[in-house]
Design brief:
Structural class: alpha/beta
Distance between the termini: 8 Å
Number of domains: 1
Radius of gyration: 17 Å
Strand content: 15-25%
Shape: globular
Number of strands: 7
Largest sheet: 7 strands, mixed
Helix content: 40-55%
Length: 195
């Protein structure tokens, strides 16, 4: 069985294949992938993503990696609307659950004008590969299966890899190997540990 580091080392050869970037050989499915990993390897994965971005984005690969950290996007949007400091105060007075729900409303999650989806859509170009990160940090406000479901109709020509701290078996998402998220069947497991 391959280690997380060995699996990470297989990402660059995989994403440089023309067939990966063109979504070929997927039975006409959208090229969405989930790279699941043991949560204790979070810092290794973050460092490796930075290494890959630097290498690809400064090289002549013919594409760019655009990383979207869901947690950082959430904070940026809330701050730009003047809600971030208000959320801290609300949490002190009314508790975390209240703030989670207020933040979801402010971000318009799962609506036709979802601000997280719009943020990503407005920042990708045709020759990009999307790396979604920050999944564990953004939970429970942003749920991974919800983001993937809502991105499908908007970003369907650009390959996407979600880095998921937990387990994905091709159907079930288990965040941090403890929190069962809703099932998600439209993504392919990226860089299988048995390869």
């Amino acid at each position: 069985m391959a280690t997380t580091k060995e699996r990470l080392d297989k990402i660059l050869p995989a994403i440089t294949k023309k067939s990966f970037r063109e979504n070929k050989g997927l039975g006409n499915e959208i090229g969405y992938y989930i790279f699941d990993y043991e949560p204790q390897h979070e810092m290794l994965v973050r460092d490796y993503i930075n290494f890959l971005k630097d290498k690809v984005n400064s090289g002549n690969y013919g594409f760019k990696i655009k990383e979207f950290d869901l947690y950082e996007i959430m904070l940026e949007i809330l701050d730009s609307k003047g809600y971030l400091e208000k959320n801290f105060e609300m949490e002190r007075k009314k508790g975390s659950e209240y703030v989670f729900n207020a933040a979801k409303k402010a971000l318009r999650l799962t609506t036709a004008n979802d601000l997280i989806i719009k943020y990503i859509k407005d920042r990708v170009e045709e020759d990009d590969i999307i790396f979604l990160t920050g999944v564990g940090k953004a939970w429970p406000i942003i749920r991974s299966h919800t983001i993937l479901n809502n991105l499908h109709p908007v970003v369907d020509e650009i390959p996407l890899v979600m880095f998921f701290p937990g387990t994905y078996d091709g159907g079930s998402l288990v965040l941090l190997d403890e929190v069962k998220d809703d099932n998600y069947y439209r993504a392919f497991r990226f860089i299988d540990e048995y390869q």
